Amino acid sequence: MYDTRLYQEHLNRVSRSFAKSIEMLDDPLRHYVALSYLLCRMIDTIEDEKQLSKEQQKLAFEKLKAALNSPERKSYFLKLIRALPWSESAEKALMMDSPIFIDDFHRLPLPIKNHIRELSFQMMDGMWHFLNQSEKGKIQIRDHNDLNTYCFFVAGVVGECLTKMVANMEERWGKTKGLVAKSHAFGLFLQKVNILKDQWKDEKEGRFFVPNRKEVYQNLLGHARDSYDYICSIPSAQKAYKVFCLSAFLLGLQTIKRLDHQQVEKNVKVPRLKMVQLFMNLEGFANSNHKLTEYIEENFPEILRIQRPIRMDYQGVQAILNA
């Protein structure tokens, strides 16, 4: 058993939208996804904390890896976390409760634990690569291949981990051709939506993720097509997972509808009424791919016109993982 109340408190603090989506899942998948998300948020906090030096960030990643490899190493990670300077935030509270989540991680079934460990290690390796290349805390993405590589490590690996966890329950689905590549695209789609939405804010804080706004948007549409195909492929027996994916996907589509290609500083938040309407339709879309297709055709027809989405080049990913 795990403390659902504690999990929900932290999820509500660090991401209300994901907290709501995760609530749609059934246990044990709800537990697996919530724990994965909170571990990823811990990793993200180490990357984002401006009071940490590169050396402190690297050490924190190393200690967290050790704690996920062996529960006996948890105390060393906690000792470091308590000694490091953290900005007062919901993320700091999450870091202080990290021993609880590390203990829960080590109680997971072995296949699930392996999937989450692989996700966490790859995310830390990728984040450290870009942090180590940064100058004075400023991250500069050079071109679109560079952006795809960054997005793979912060989001593509999440899509792959989710797919592998569900595939433990749906083995035939897990062997579907091209499924892993589409799960990466699903993660890249959601990440690039946020990158375009937050470009002005990120650049004020020294994170330059957008080499060419128009090119990122066009590439985003290809990821949206792969994401649509991915969601349509989810077996009917995993309806709760399909609803979970749809909530993020449709919110992402509504967000890009509000993006301006030129004016970066713009409020693109989806209105509350529109979000309520979307969430009311999730069950119907999950029950019928035909209804989902009709909705996409009516609201985002350009996505369905894409026949062969451009897939990412994994050379940059392999170079980092092999370093």
Description:
The protein is mostly helical and 323 residues long. Helices cover 73% and strands 1% of the residues. The mean pLDDT is 92.
Number of helices: 18
The N- and C-terminal alpha carbons lie at a distance of 38 Å
CATH architecture of the largest domain: Orthogonal Bundle
The 3D shape can be described as: globular
Reading the helices and strands in chain order gives: HHHHHHHHEHHHHEHHHHHH
Mean pLDDT across the residues is 92
CATH class of the largest domain: Mainly Alpha
Keywords:
323 residues; two-stranded parallel sheet; Farnesyl Diphosphate Synthase; 1% strand; mainly alpha
Short précis:
With 323 residues, the chain is an all-alpha fold.
Question: Secondary-structure blueprint of this entry?
Answer:
Layout: H1 4-14, H2 16-23, H3 29-48, H4 54-69, H5 74-83, H6 90-96, H7 98-106, H8 110-133, E1 139-140, H9 144-167, H10 171-174, H11 179-197, H12 199-204, E2 207-208, H13 213-233, H14 239-257, H15 272-287, H16 289-299, H17 301-304, H18 315-321
Parallel strand pairs: 1-2
